[in-house]
Amino acid sequence: MRHALCAWRSRSRCAILVGVMDTRWIQDFVTLAEVRNFTRAAEIRNLSQAAFSRRIQGLEHWVGAGLIDRSAFPLKLTSEGERFRVVALALLNQIADARSEIAGEPSRDHVRLAVPYAMATTRFPEWWRRWSFDAALSCAVEVGNVHDTVSAFTAGSVDLLVCYQHASHPVHLDVARFDSHEIGVEKVRPYASAGLVEMGRASLPGTAVQPVPLLSYSPGAYFNRVVESAVEGNSQRLIGFRAAEAGMSDLLGELAVQGMGVAWLPDSSFSGGRLAGLVPIGDGGWDVDVSVVAYRSKSNVRRAVGQIWERILQPQ
Q1: Is 2's pLDDT higher than 80?
Q2: Do both 92 and 51 map to the same domain?
Q3: What separation in angstroms does the CA of 69 have from each of 56, 57, 82, 86, 140?
Q4: Which structural domain range is residue 245 located in?
Protein backbone atom coordinates (compact mmCIF):
# COMPACT_ATOMS: atom_id res chain seq x y z
CA MET A 1 0.00 0.00 0.00
CA ARG A 2 2.78 2.44 0.89
CA HIS A 3 4.80 1.74 -2.23
CA ALA A 4 1.92 2.85 -4.47
CA LEU A 5 1.54 6.08 -2.57
CA CYS A 6 5.25 6.77 -2.35
CA ALA A 7 5.38 6.79 -6.12
CA TRP A 8 3.20 9.89 -5.81
CA ARG A 9 4.47 11.63 -2.66
CA SER A 10 7.37 11.35 -0.26
CA ARG A 11 7.56 8.49 2.22
CA SER A 12 6.67 10.79 5.12
CA ARG A 13 3.58 12.08 3.33
CA CYS A 14 2.68 8.46 2.61
CA ALA A 15 2.66 7.64 6.30
CA ILE A 16 0.38 10.61 6.97
CA LEU A 17 -2.14 9.40 4.41
CA VAL A 18 -2.19 5.83 5.66
CA GLY A 19 -2.20 6.76 9.30
CA VAL A 20 -4.37 9.87 9.43
CA MET A 21 -6.40 10.59 6.32
CA ASP A 22 -9.84 9.00 6.07
CA THR A 23 -9.71 6.59 3.13
CA ARG A 24 -13.29 7.57 2.35
CA TRP A 25 -11.78 10.70 0.78
CA ILE A 26 -10.08 8.47 -1.77
CA GLN A 27 -13.34 6.63 -2.47
CA ASP A 28 -15.02 10.02 -2.89
CA PHE A 29 -12.39 11.10 -5.39
CA VAL A 30 -12.58 7.86 -7.41
CA THR A 31 -16.37 8.19 -7.58
CA LEU A 32 -16.12 11.82 -8.72
CA ALA A 33 -13.49 10.88 -11.30
CA GLU A 34 -15.94 8.36 -12.73
CA VAL A 35 -19.22 10.31 -12.83
CA ARG A 36 -17.64 13.77 -13.44
CA ASN A 37 -20.41 15.52 -11.53
CA PHE A 38 -20.32 16.74 -7.91
CA THR A 39 -24.06 16.40 -7.33
CA ARG A 40 -24.21 12.88 -8.73
CA ALA A 41 -21.07 11.78 -6.91
CA ALA A 42 -22.39 13.16 -3.62
CA GLU A 43 -25.62 11.19 -4.08
CA ILE A 44 -23.68 7.98 -4.75
CA ARG A 45 -21.56 8.54 -1.65
CA ASN A 46 -24.66 9.39 0.40
CA LEU A 47 -23.41 12.85 1.35
CA SER A 48 -24.65 16.40 1.00
CA GLN A 49 -22.95 18.20 -1.86
CA ALA A 50 -21.38 20.65 0.59
CA ALA A 51 -19.89 17.85 2.71
CA PHE A 52 -18.69 16.01 -0.38
CA SER A 53 -17.02 19.15 -1.76
CA ARG A 54 -15.25 19.75 1.56
CA ARG A 55 -13.82 16.21 1.50
CA ILE A 56 -12.53 16.63 -2.07
CA GLN A 57 -10.96 19.96 -1.09
CA GLY A 58 -9.38 18.29 1.93
CA LEU A 59 -7.85 15.66 -0.32
CA GLU A 60 -6.53 18.32 -2.70
CA HIS A 61 -5.04 20.20 0.27
CA TRP A 62 -3.22 17.05 1.39
CA VAL A 63 -1.95 16.25 -2.12
CA GLY A 64 -0.81 19.82 -2.57
CA ALA A 65 -2.34 20.21 -6.02
CA GLY A 66 -5.71 20.72 -7.64
CA LEU A 67 -7.16 17.41 -8.77
CA ILE A 68 -10.34 18.73 -10.37
CA ASP A 69 -10.67 21.22 -13.22
CA ARG A 70 -13.85 22.93 -12.07
CA SER A 71 -13.90 25.33 -15.03
CA ALA A 72 -14.71 22.53 -17.47
CA PHE A 73 -18.23 21.22 -18.08
CA PRO A 74 -18.63 18.41 -17.52
CA LEU A 75 -15.78 18.70 -15.06
CA LYS A 76 -12.55 16.85 -15.76
CA LEU A 77 -9.45 15.89 -13.85
CA THR A 78 -6.28 17.94 -13.98
CA SER A 79 -3.10 16.19 -15.08
CA GLU A 80 -2.29 15.77 -11.38
CA GLY A 81 -5.77 14.37 -10.82
CA GLU A 82 -5.32 11.78 -13.58
CA ARG A 83 -2.04 10.66 -12.04
CA PHE A 84 -3.52 10.51 -8.56
CA ARG A 85 -6.55 8.54 -9.82
CA VAL A 86 -4.25 5.67 -10.81
CA VAL A 87 -2.64 5.73 -7.36
CA ALA A 88 -6.04 5.95 -5.64
CA LEU A 89 -7.39 2.92 -7.49
CA ALA A 90 -4.27 0.94 -6.66
CA LEU A 91 -4.58 1.94 -3.00
CA LEU A 92 -8.22 0.85 -2.80
CA ASN A 93 -7.31 -2.49 -4.38
CA GLN A 94 -4.49 -3.00 -1.90
CA ILE A 95 -6.71 -2.13 1.06
CA ALA A 96 -9.32 -4.62 -0.14
CA ASP A 97 -6.64 -7.28 -0.61
CA ALA A 98 -5.24 -6.62 2.86
CA ARG A 99 -8.71 -6.89 4.37
CA SER A 100 -9.24 -10.24 2.64
CA GLU A 101 -5.85 -11.50 3.78
CA ILE A 102 -6.48 -10.48 7.39
CA ALA A 103 -9.83 -12.26 7.23
CA GLY A 104 -8.00 -15.43 6.26
CA GLU A 105 -8.76 -15.29 2.54
CA PRO A 106 -6.06 -15.79 -0.12
CA SER A 107 -6.12 -12.21 -1.44
CA ARG A 108 -3.87 -13.00 -4.41
CA ASP A 109 -6.50 -15.38 -5.76
CA HIS A 110 -9.57 -13.60 -4.44
CA VAL A 111 -11.92 -11.68 -6.73
CA ARG A 112 -14.66 -9.28 -5.71
CA LEU A 113 -17.71 -9.08 -7.98
CA ALA A 114 -20.93 -7.05 -7.98
CA VAL A 115 -24.14 -8.39 -9.51
CA PRO A 116 -27.79 -7.30 -9.35
CA TYR A 117 -30.32 -9.26 -7.28
CA ALA A 118 -31.91 -10.81 -10.37
CA MET A 119 -28.63 -12.50 -11.37
CA ALA A 120 -27.29 -13.49 -7.95
CA THR A 121 -29.34 -16.65 -7.41
CA THR A 122 -30.02 -17.52 -11.03
CA ARG A 123 -27.14 -16.87 -13.42
CA PHE A 124 -24.15 -16.23 -11.17
CA PRO A 125 -23.59 -19.72 -9.67
CA GLU A 126 -23.19 -21.25 -13.14
CA TRP A 127 -21.03 -18.34 -14.32
CA TRP A 128 -18.68 -18.67 -11.38
CA ARG A 129 -18.39 -22.44 -11.81
CA ARG A 130 -17.30 -21.87 -15.41
CA TRP A 131 -15.09 -18.84 -14.79
CA SER A 132 -13.19 -20.29 -11.83
CA PHE A 133 -12.91 -23.90 -13.04
CA ASP A 134 -9.41 -25.30 -12.28
CA ALA A 135 -8.24 -21.79 -11.34
CA ALA A 136 -8.28 -22.21 -7.53
CA LEU A 137 -9.94 -18.83 -7.12
CA SER A 138 -12.28 -17.60 -4.41
CA CYS A 139 -14.81 -14.80 -4.68
CA ALA A 140 -16.83 -12.33 -2.67
CA VAL A 141 -20.12 -11.28 -4.23
CA GLU A 142 -21.77 -7.93 -3.56
CA VAL A 143 -25.46 -8.03 -4.41
CA GLY A 144 -27.70 -4.99 -4.88
CA ASN A 145 -29.72 -3.07 -7.40
CA VAL A 146 -28.07 -1.91 -10.62
CA HIS A 147 -27.35 1.56 -9.19
CA ASP A 148 -25.65 0.16 -6.08
CA THR A 149 -23.55 -2.38 -7.95
CA VAL A 150 -22.37 0.19 -10.50
CA SER A 151 -21.50 2.56 -7.64
CA ALA A 152 -19.51 -0.17 -5.86
CA PHE A 153 -17.61 -0.88 -9.06
CA THR A 154 -16.78 2.73 -9.91
CA ALA A 155 -15.73 3.38 -6.30
CA GLY A 156 -13.20 0.56 -6.61
CA SER A 157 -14.66 -1.67 -3.89
CA VAL A 158 -15.18 -4.57 -6.34
CA ASP A 159 -13.05 -5.90 -9.19
CA LEU A 160 -15.72 -6.87 -11.70
CA LEU A 161 -19.27 -5.81 -12.44
CA VAL A 162 -21.97 -7.76 -14.25
CA CYS A 163 -25.22 -5.89 -14.84
CA TYR A 164 -28.10 -5.35 -17.20
CA GLN A 165 -27.92 -2.84 -20.01
CA HIS A 166 -30.84 -1.50 -22.04
CA ALA A 167 -30.37 0.74 -25.06
CA SER A 168 -32.70 3.44 -23.76
CA HIS A 169 -31.19 3.32 -20.25
CA PRO A 170 -27.45 2.67 -20.71
CA VAL A 171 -24.93 2.36 -17.91
CA HIS A 172 -22.51 5.21 -18.63
CA LEU A 173 -18.93 4.07 -17.98
CA ASP A 174 -15.89 5.66 -19.62
CA VAL A 175 -14.73 3.32 -22.40
CA ALA A 176 -11.23 4.74 -22.06
CA ARG A 177 -11.05 3.44 -18.50
CA PHE A 178 -13.28 0.36 -18.46
CA ASP A 179 -13.43 -2.78 -20.57
CA SER A 180 -16.84 -4.28 -21.28
CA HIS A 181 -18.12 -7.50 -22.82
CA GLU A 182 -21.66 -8.62 -23.57
CA ILE A 183 -22.25 -12.01 -21.99
CA GLY A 184 -25.70 -12.49 -23.45
CA VAL A 185 -29.19 -11.09 -23.94
CA GLU A 186 -32.28 -11.72 -21.84
CA LYS A 187 -35.87 -11.05 -22.75
CA VAL A 188 -38.04 -9.33 -20.18
CA ARG A 189 -41.70 -10.15 -20.75
CA PRO A 190 -45.00 -10.12 -18.86
CA TYR A 191 -46.03 -13.26 -16.99
CA ALA A 192 -49.08 -14.32 -15.02
CA SER A 193 -50.29 -17.47 -13.33
CA ALA A 194 -52.32 -19.90 -15.46
CA GLY A 195 -55.23 -19.38 -13.07
CA LEU A 196 -55.22 -15.61 -13.53
CA VAL A 197 -55.13 -16.06 -17.30
CA GLU A 198 -58.06 -18.51 -17.22
CA MET A 199 -60.06 -16.00 -15.19
CA GLY A 200 -59.49 -13.40 -17.92
CA ARG A 201 -57.76 -11.03 -15.52
CA ALA A 202 -54.38 -11.02 -17.25
CA SER A 203 -55.33 -9.92 -20.74
CA LEU A 204 -53.16 -7.06 -21.98
CA PRO A 205 -53.63 -4.15 -22.41
CA GLY A 206 -56.63 -4.36 -20.06
CA THR A 207 -59.87 -2.40 -20.16
CA ALA A 208 -61.62 0.14 -18.01
CA VAL A 209 -64.00 -2.61 -16.88
CA GLN A 210 -61.22 -5.16 -16.31
CA PRO A 211 -57.93 -3.34 -15.58
CA VAL A 212 -54.85 -5.53 -15.25
CA PRO A 213 -53.42 -6.04 -11.74
CA LEU A 214 -49.77 -5.01 -12.09
CA LEU A 215 -46.86 -6.26 -10.00
CA SER A 216 -44.54 -3.29 -10.43
CA TYR A 217 -40.90 -2.61 -9.78
CA SER A 218 -40.01 0.09 -7.27
CA PRO A 219 -39.35 3.50 -8.87
CA GLY A 220 -35.62 3.27 -8.23
CA ALA A 221 -35.22 -0.21 -9.71
CA TYR A 222 -33.49 -0.50 -13.09
CA PHE A 223 -36.18 -2.88 -14.38
CA ASN A 224 -38.81 -0.25 -13.64
CA ARG A 225 -37.31 1.82 -16.46
CA VAL A 226 -36.99 -1.26 -18.68
CA VAL A 227 -40.68 -2.08 -18.23
CA GLU A 228 -41.60 1.54 -18.89
CA SER A 229 -39.75 1.25 -22.21
CA ALA A 230 -41.77 -1.84 -23.11
CA VAL A 231 -45.05 -0.17 -22.21
CA GLU A 232 -44.22 3.08 -24.00
CA GLY A 233 -43.10 1.17 -27.09
CA ASN A 234 -46.45 -0.56 -27.50
CA SER A 235 -49.11 1.06 -29.67
CA GLN A 236 -51.80 0.15 -27.13
CA ARG A 237 -52.31 1.98 -23.86
CA LEU A 238 -51.87 -0.20 -20.81
CA ILE A 239 -54.85 -0.01 -18.46
CA GLY A 240 -54.09 -1.43 -15.06
CA PHE A 241 -53.62 -0.76 -11.38
CA ARG A 242 -50.67 -1.29 -9.07
CA ALA A 243 -51.42 -4.44 -7.07
CA ALA A 244 -47.96 -4.66 -5.47
CA GLU A 245 -44.52 -3.09 -5.73
CA ALA A 246 -41.05 -4.46 -5.00
CA GLY A 247 -37.47 -3.91 -6.06
CA MET A 248 -36.61 -7.56 -6.78
CA SER A 249 -37.85 -9.66 -9.69
CA ASP A 250 -37.73 -12.83 -7.56
CA LEU A 251 -40.31 -11.40 -5.19
CA LEU A 252 -42.55 -10.14 -7.97
CA GLY A 253 -42.32 -13.56 -9.60
CA GLU A 254 -43.48 -15.30 -6.42
CA LEU A 255 -46.39 -12.89 -6.12
CA ALA A 256 -47.31 -13.67 -9.72
CA VAL A 257 -47.25 -17.41 -8.96
CA GLN A 258 -49.78 -16.73 -6.21
CA GLY A 259 -52.11 -15.15 -8.78
CA MET A 260 -51.61 -11.62 -7.46
CA GLY A 261 -51.06 -10.02 -10.87
CA VAL A 262 -48.86 -9.58 -13.94
CA ALA A 263 -45.09 -9.20 -13.56
CA TRP A 264 -42.42 -8.40 -16.16
CA LEU A 265 -39.61 -10.90 -15.55
CA PRO A 266 -36.25 -11.67 -17.21
CA ASP A 267 -35.51 -15.12 -18.62
CA SER A 268 -33.10 -15.80 -15.76
CA SER A 269 -36.00 -15.83 -13.30
CA PHE A 270 -36.98 -19.24 -14.67
CA SER A 271 -33.60 -20.97 -14.50
CA GLY A 272 -33.54 -24.22 -12.58
CA GLY A 273 -37.30 -24.70 -12.89
CA ARG A 274 -38.18 -21.60 -10.87
CA LEU A 275 -41.63 -20.01 -11.18
CA ALA A 276 -42.92 -23.00 -13.15
CA GLY A 277 -46.55 -21.94 -12.63
CA LEU A 278 -46.25 -18.80 -14.77
CA VAL A 279 -47.07 -18.37 -18.46
CA PRO A 280 -46.03 -15.52 -20.77
CA ILE A 281 -48.79 -13.21 -21.94
CA GLY A 282 -49.12 -10.40 -24.48
CA ASP A 283 -48.14 -12.24 -27.68
CA GLY A 284 -44.64 -10.71 -27.65
CA GLY A 285 -45.81 -7.15 -28.14
CA TRP A 286 -44.91 -6.16 -24.58
CA ASP A 287 -41.48 -7.83 -24.50
CA VAL A 288 -38.15 -6.02 -24.33
CA ASP A 289 -34.55 -7.26 -24.69
CA VAL A 290 -31.81 -6.37 -22.22
CA SER A 291 -28.11 -7.13 -22.56
CA VAL A 292 -26.06 -8.73 -19.80
CA VAL A 293 -22.70 -6.95 -19.72
CA ALA A 294 -19.51 -7.54 -17.72
CA TYR A 295 -17.08 -4.72 -16.87
CA ARG A 296 -13.59 -4.40 -15.47
CA SER A 297 -11.30 -1.44 -14.88
CA LYS A 298 -8.34 -1.29 -17.25
CA SER A 299 -6.16 -0.16 -14.35
CA ASN A 300 -6.93 -3.34 -12.37
CA VAL A 301 -3.96 -5.55 -13.21
CA ARG A 302 -4.41 -8.20 -10.53
CA ARG A 303 -3.62 -11.68 -11.84
CA ALA A 304 -6.86 -13.25 -10.57
CA VAL A 305 -8.96 -10.54 -12.20
CA GLY A 306 -7.15 -11.06 -15.49
CA GLN A 307 -7.80 -14.81 -15.30
CA ILE A 308 -11.51 -14.35 -14.79
CA TRP A 309 -11.73 -11.69 -17.50
CA GLU A 310 -10.10 -14.00 -20.05
CA ARG A 311 -12.72 -16.63 -19.29
CA ILE A 312 -15.54 -14.10 -19.52
CA LEU A 313 -14.32 -13.23 -23.02
CA GLN A 314 -14.51 -16.85 -24.16
CA PRO A 315 -17.60 -17.81 -26.23
CA GLN A 316 -20.41 -18.98 -24.00
Answers
A1: no
A2: yes
A3: 12, 12, 11, 17, 36
A4: 186-289
